[in-house]
Amino acid sequence: MMNAPQDLPGRMMALQLREKAALYNSYMPFLEHGGLFVPTDDIFSLGDEVLLALELTDHPGKKFLRTKVAWINPARTSAHRPKGVGLAFGGDEICLQTKILIEGELGSALRSDRVTFTL
Questions:
Q1: Residue 13 in this model has a pLDDT that exceeds 50
Q2: Which of 35, 56, 81, 119 could cross-link to 31 by cystine, CB 3.0-4.6 Å?
Q3: CB 99: neighbour CB atoms within 10 A?
Q4: Is 84 part of any domain?
Q5: Of the candidates 13, 21, 92, 15, which has an alpha carbon nearest to the alpha carbon of residue 55?
Q6: Residue 113 falls within a domain, yes or no?
Q7: Three-state SS across the chain?
Q8: For 23-37, 58-72, 101-115, which range has the lowest pLDDT when averaged over its residues?
């Protein structure tokens, strides 16, 4: 019987982004290595480690990203932002590749002034 690696984060979340608009609303380009907002009612603290299982449209399979909580929307806000957490990507290869992939998908939309789930 195989044992699970001991260095994985204690919590795991899954996120499916099937539309470009959802990707735009969730992506956090202002973080050093990028990140994604995940709607959730679960309680987190800043700095909590989370393994994110990410599925992107047009990119088959799941990407497993080591992340840390860097943003918290505690409840629906007056700006109509959902409750959830922003997960900052780590500096490892899969996170860096995912940042490049997402930024390629969003292209010039990254410079938009449209409101997102975080800013």
A1: yes
A2: 35
A3: 19
A4: yes
A5: 15
A6: no
A7: CCCCCCCCCCEEEEEEECCHHHHHHHECCCCCCCEEEEECCCCCCCCCEEEEEEEECCEEEEEEEEEEEEEEECCCCCCCCCCEEEEEECCCHHHHHHHHHHHHHHHHHHHCCCCCCCC
A8: 101-115
pTM (predicted TM-score)? 0.86
* Residue 112 belongs to a domain: no
Residues 116, 78: Cα–Cα separation, whole Å: 13
Look-up of token digits 């470009």:
20
Structure tokens at 25: 């609303």
Query: If 0-12 CB within 10 Å is exposed, 13-18 middle and 19+ buried, where does residue 95 land?
Result: buried
Number of domains in the chain: 1
> What is the average per-residue pLDDT within 77-85?
78
Compute the average pLDDT of residues 88-116: 91
In a domain, 88, yes or no: yes
Distance CA 95, CA 72 (A): 20
